[in-house]
Design goal:
Elements (H helix, E strand, L loop, with lengths): L1 E8 L5 E8 L2 H10 L3 E7 L13 H16 L4 H11 L3 H15 L4 H5 L8 H13 L2 H56 L7 H15 L1 H21 L1 H11 L5 H22 L4 H9 L5 H15 L4 H8 L4 H13 L2 H56 L3
Antiparallel strand pairs: 1-2, 1-3
């Protein structure tokens, strides 16, 4: 099999580019035909480095698993279900992946085994759940769980963006106004202030010095917010210890840290519950959930939990000893273990944190507006006071 770089045309006459494994160009043409594409030209690609493919979008995966759940629940054979989905997908790369799934299953492998070959679409959790569904004969229920989880992840991702984007936008406005004042407005007043022939007050001298710094080093001030994240990323890429410390710091940042921790714990609880209810062992649930938390500090705590369980401790004790998980999670784990409904207890944790995150974001948004207004007012007040102080001094010395 070789990797071909091709150009093809779809049913609407639109040109598509992509990469596809095939034995030869005839095989490539047949594979593309099954995906609804007609081959224009192709050549063997040098390698898989820099394929240019990003991960499949979450919305595409939601559509895929929702339709797969509906079709399999209606007793439509899996291969026919996949063929129908391949023809309805809008993403050419995803169509290629589904085509490859069909061919792999036709070759005698299971769906979970076929999914392993496409990590850009299906992560370990989807594969583990699908494998569990195949073993238990509950594939429709598993696909329903995955769909619900993806929708929930999409909503939580939206909350996360809301936390970051709104302060970033307001902060950008404040920075822009500061640059305008310091680079344009204050220099216009320098000659007027210095021409008064008075002793310049300390706050005015501070304003003039700040303005002079902005005028002289504006390019440094603009480059710094761009250079610092790049430098931080390079440092973290070269040092696992720094990556761990940075992830730990993110959990403790004022206001944002507690909300981020709740989002991560809600994601963990939701994923754990979904996998556990599908018949996956606790240790496998923890191992797979470790990949979705997206924070090395919490991931290390989950590793510690695994070691504690393997040494003979129960689930609740293992989570409690890490010191990372709040009392709510520990309490619900204890109730879940006692009642045998661990998945329901964790779903309650996920629901609670989901609601709490929404409320916290609303409170942060309410606080940001007056805070930024106060900052702007103080900035403008400082400029006005610094400019008007020398004028008031002159007026005070005038004798009527």
């Amino acid at each position: 099999m070789a990797l071909y770089s091709y150009r093809a045309i779809d049913d609407h006459g639109k040109t598509q580019k992509g990469l596809q494994d095939a034995a030869n160009q005839v095989d490539l043409e047949l594979r593309l035909k099954r995906g609804g594409l007609d081959l224009i030209d192709a050549k063997i690609d040098d390698g898989r480095v820099g394929l240019g493919y990003s991960k499949i979008k979450r919305t595409e995966l939601i559509t895929f698993f929702f339709n797969l759940e509906q079709l399999t629940r209606a007793d439509v054979p899996l291969l026919e279900s996949l063929a129908d989905l391949r023809d309805s997908m809008g993403d050419p790369h995803f169509r290629e992946i589904i085509t490859n799934l069909i061919e792999t299953i036709e070759g005698g492998k299971k769906l979970s085994e076929a999914m392993v070959q496409h990590p850009d679409a299906f992560d370990k959790i989807f594969i583990s759940l699908t494998h569990a569904g195949e073993a238990s004969g509950r594939l429709p229920e598993v696909f329903e769980h995955i769909t619900a989880s993806l929708k929930w992840q999409d909503e939580m991702a939206s909350h996360t963006k809301t936390i970051l984007l709104y302060p970033a936008f307001v902060g950008t406005v404040v920075v822009a106004i500061t640059f305008f004042l310091m680079i344009y407005l204050v220099p216009q007043l320098v000659g007027f202030i210095q021409g008064m022939g008075q002793n310049i007050p300390i706050q005015t001298r501070m304003l003039l010095a700040t303005s002079s710094f902005f005028v002289s080093y504006w390019y440094v001030l603009i480059a710094l917010p761009i250079a610092l994240p790049i430098a931080l990323k390079l440092v973290m890429a070269s040092s696992p210890r720094m990556r761990y410390r940075f992830d730990q710091l993110k959990l403790n940042i004022w206001i944002i840290g507690p909300i981020l921790r709740k989002i991560i714990l809600a994601r963990f609880a939701n994923t754990f519950a979904m996998m556990y209810s599908s018949g996956i062992s606790i240790l496998d649930c923890i191992a797979n959930s470790r990949d979705v938390v997206g924070n090395r500090a919490i991931a290390k705590s989950l590793d510690d939990v695994t070691h504690e369980i393997e040494s003979g401790k129960n689930l609740t004790q293992s989570f409690q000893h890490t010191g990372m998980f709040p009392p709510l999670v520990i309490r619900m784990l204890k109730v879940g273990e006692a009642t045998g409904s661990l998945d329901k207890a964790l779903l309650n944790v996920s629901y609670f944190y989901d609601r709490d995150v929404k409320d916290s974001i609303k409170k942060v948004q309410v606080l940001i507006e007056p805070t930024m207004t106060i900052v702007l007012g103080m900035l403008l007040g400082w400029v006005m006071l610094s400019v008007l102080s020398p004028i008031y001094d002159i007026i005070g010395k005038v004798k009527f």
